[in-house]
Amino acid sequence: MNRSYMKILGHLIILLLFIGNGCQYNFPTTPEIEIKSEEADFSNTVVIGGRYTSGFMDGALYNDAQQKNYIHLFVEHFYGDSTNSFNELSISSENGFNTQEVENTTQIQGKYEIAYRAEVTDWEIRQPINGEEIQDYEGSLRNINNFSFPGIRSYQVDGEPPMQNRFVSRVADRLQGNSILDQAIEKNPSLVILDIATDDIFDFTLNGASGDENPEISSVVHTDLTPVSVFEQSIQEAIQRLLNETDADIIIPTIPNPLELPYFQNLPWYFTSSQFRLPNVFFNFNFCKEPGYCEMYYFNEFNVSVNEFNRGRSGDERRPIVDFDAGGGERFRGKLIIDEALPTAIDSEGDTIPKLRQLTQEDLFLYNGEIPQYESLLSDGEMGAIVPLADKFALTSSEQETITARRQAFNTIITQLTQSSSRVYLLDIAKLIDDVELGLVNSNGTAFELTYGHRSIISADGYTMNQKGQALFANKLIELLNEEFSSNIPYLDPNTFKGIDYSFE
Predict the structure, then answer these.
(1) Which residue, 197, 172, 198, 179, is CA-closest to 241?
(2) Of 379, 395, 411, which closes a domain?
(3) Residue 8 lies in a domain
(4) What is the pTM of this model?
(5) Which residues pair with 125 in a beta bridge?
(6) Of 108-122, 199-213, 226-240, 372-386, which range is least confident?
(7) Which helix (H) or strand (E) holds 357?
(8) Residue 324, strand partner residues
(9) How far is CA 453 from CA 108, 157, 366, in A?
(10) What are the DSSP calls for 481-496, one per residue?
(11) Is the confidence at residue 385, as pLDDT, over 60?
């Protein structure tokens, strides 16, 4: 039996078990233990961060997720109750506002659940449920500990708040002209988690590198990468202010590799056998060799021009043809894209040949393209076959190299900064995610995965942590605190936390 079908069958069995138990997780009780730290003060922990420290998961920020960010879990674990010691900017939303499902819909979409279509597919689908608009925050900032805003960039924490970010604009009136960093410093924190690097890369990556990799900072949009020089200056200045204006110890997480996550890895770059139904415009029905088999001619003119251009050229100077060979297997079913990295080619008539090619196994087809692809197959079937995929739906190998290089540059800067002061510490989240990918992280016999299975630490959106993953992050923080501050904090058991929500379409 196909491994993909076995995986789905396993998930369905898990679902039935959940249903049979009232869809409840039975959490074991935690034994009481005297927890202490000889050298650290966690009584006034403050966070300045983005997606991961806000608790954003399943494509949205909602009540339950917000209370399960890893800093919140740690403080609650340390003090036994976070009610009076760690306060969030309450989102007051049951299902949240899905930040990826805002186009072509009149219904406000909320968090994702993992679903399976009536017909069998080789992968899980992300199914949004009804959501709510993001409401303005009406409370005071005086007692807030977590200043985390999904999508915040390093250069946006100390300066005019980025009003285009709805998670920030909802509290703008309460900031009263202060920057986010100003507000955090006013708290006179004892410990600061400064997690402001991840979103400098993630939105660019989630949108298929469709933005600018080196934009002018005055015109940057959320799909752009943050320039290295801007990131370095911004995070250096933020740390210097915290060192100069507070007595806090500072912990800076590294940026994990987004390309390891299901959002990028789960979907095939080619049309599967069940999908391989090419539009009628591909075929010349006047020249059928036999009933049901007709010559594919749609890209003939394009291919002739490419072959003429390729004469006398070799290697990277050549251009690929487009060939959907029905009998040739998956390597001939790669979805169609425009690749600006291809060499410019002129045909014999002096016209520019479009930079078309098919995806290969080196490229990635992203989850933001899954539903549009399915809807296309139900109608004209042209997406990825006649009409190239939108840039935001795929990552080429060269784009992946750009993302990897930028992430490595940022992590190098972070590492160097943690070596510049005895009060600044490195929380290596990137190493933790790499270890999970290698199957090296387990708890009580359960090895965790970067999948959509029941051992996954990834939420239904495919790129943020679920509650198990946040618990693992909390454990990584506890490991650091125990090593550096003579603490004896016991670890959380991630198995007692909720994983992925499953549903059926």
Answers:
(1) 179
(2) 395
(3) no
(4) 0.88
(5) 115
(6) 108-122
(7) strand 356-358
(8) none
(9) 27, 36, 18
(10) HHHHS-B-PPPP-GGG
(11) yes
